Amino acid sequence: MDTAPTLTVTCPLPIADYPAVQMAHGGGGTLMHQLIERLIVPAFSNPALETRHDGALLELQGLRLAFTTDSYVVHPLFFPGGDIGSLAVHGTVNDLAMCGARPLYLSVGLIIEEGLPMETLRRVVQSMRQAADAAGVQLVTGDTKVVDRGTGDGIFINTAGIGVIEHGLTIAPASVRPGDALLLSGDLGRHGIAIMAVREGLEFESAIESDSAALAGVVGSLLAAGIEIRCMRDLTRGGLASALVEIAEAAQVSIDIDERAIPVCDDVRGACEILGLDPLYVANEGRFVCFVPAEQADRALEVMRAHPLGAGASLIGHVGGDTPGLVTMTSGIGASRIIDMLSGEQLPRIC
Amino acid sequence: MRYIDEYRDARAALRYAKVIERITTRPWTLMEICGGQTHAIVKFGIDTLLPPQITLVHGPGCPVCVTPVELIDKAVAIAADPKAIFCSFGDMLRVPGTSRDLLSVKAAGGDVRIVYSPLDALKIARSNPDKEVVFFAVGFETTAPANAMAVYQARREGIRNFSILVSHVLVPPAMEAILSSPQNQVQGFLAAGHVCTVMGYTEYEPIARRYGVPIVVTGFEPLDILQGVAMCVRQLEQGRAEVENQYARSVRRGGNRLAQELIAEVFEVVPRKWRGLGWIADSGLGLREPYREFDAERRFDLAEYTAEEPAECISGLVLQGVKKPHECPAFGTRCLPEHPLGAPMVSSEGACAAYFRYRRVRAEKPQPAARDA
After folding, report:
1. Beta strands per DSSP E along chain B
2. Domains of chain A
3. Is this structure's pTM higher than 0.80?
4. Residue of A333, A342, A346 best to disrupt the B interface, most CBs of B under 10 A
């Protein structure tokens, strides 16, 4: 019954349509991608940037390195399951891990708002230290700036990281092949809902905790087990849906996932039902997807499940080759639908 | 998850689909009223389980979609006022007005806040006595009781810096407008379960009789909708035109009396303009005299606004079920969720956005030859 495509996918929207930056330009959806593709990438164009990976892959005198940076502007600074300090370490460590690198060194830039209680700063820094120790990385250089009261939100943190690639695999969207299996490391939506619950004063039977965690360990076990990872992506802003659309477009493959195989805990599902949000688009800080050759899927799942950060891993879908860039999902009642990237952040529905 | 998973069971869904297939002997066109139902239909792919003789058209029951441009412009004007804090449900922020939307006002420095309840806006008013706090009161009968409650409490507590910008609309007059249109193709309705939870369904009984259409009060989960379709088709096949209640776990014939009394205390029935449909008599709610001091249009002394819809947007035809979203020449090209020409492309409940997100490159199933025109 379904036949050939009848409509073009999208038309280029001039960035000039937006005279000012909107929140959606940082929301992990199509507006953010347009901003990057049309304003930022052209300005700095070079081969490492062109790969559009979580980090740049660089070769220095025979040594393969991954290099990445990220900034953290979370409100509230402390939330169930984490805080801005641990998040700033985990996020950058994870970007390196998603490149298949072993994270080694981080830099840290602190932009502090005048009036931030010293005790708060101390807690944030302590938390960074603990997270770095647990992830096996060192904070080796940094910078501190203080801005006038009212021009920051307590504290903003930037971290950059360097890791070393100790295997011969090319872990990137371009390596994804039709037939590959798609694995998800655990249940979705905990970080986004934990933050939203605190921000909006929502209460649930038990507090939903952020999944914020450093993923280098579980990735390391996959590599050590000899799994030929094709591509990985951590599921931060924009969630699983945006990550898969990005990879499908970059790799020019189709991806089909099964809604029934995607774990979402009851508290998160309940919160999403109430707020009119789709867990596929909610942010995570300790979950990733991993594309592997189909014949290695069982072994890879076994390795992931043996690690505490992959205990809830599951096979959620497969890669196809017929409609490049298209992500589809078999819904809970067995019908198929398209998964698209959102334009910006999800906005709660009226009723 | 309890109370959700039972209504999304794949095997039960297939059983219902089989029942519908078995009882359907002719082409029928049904309209689901509510945007929440449209969203569920496309999100779960419910229509793809139906036999080809059944066509679902998507009704005007998305509050975001039917709020007229003039009112968005008024919201934008209030939100840009430095003495105002403008509070709204999230998905109103991206609805385009004549020149900009509320998100742009926010980016330009306006104090625009997403709230989950009008009572949250009232709380903001209490803690910001030096600001004028305005809540964008949109929606059908479903959101009316909470909005009425906010105004009722504000009056009782003497909170003078709170007001609402009202764009409340009512379902039955819109159904009658669709049924009396010469272009009407709708033969049966799935009525909106949450609207009926508040209002009951006695007001639908004369409509079913007068226009000879079956109306089935229907819920929002996949099995609710499939059962609603089955009940509606069965009536059509048997030549009946009655009001039936599929959503009995939530809806009583008389509805929620307390909620109705609160609505009647604060609001009165007024004519309303619907985006895409135009003026419909007695189709909305406005504040009653004792509460009019809480009307943001008065408080901000907003002159009469007039606005033109983008000529290319066919949302009026989409909202009446005459056209499908993808039959619009701008769909997916000049009209996109991040750059909508019309409101149905904005809200996730809007038919165009739902089609864009879930249906973009899928062709429609062939229409029955009998209705090709």
Report:
1. 28-34, 54-61, 84-88, 112-114, 132-139, 162-169, 188-192, 215-218, 243-245, 267-274, 278-287
2. 10-47 (no CATH), 56-164 (3.30.1330.10), 173-339 (3.90.650.10)
3. yes
4. A333
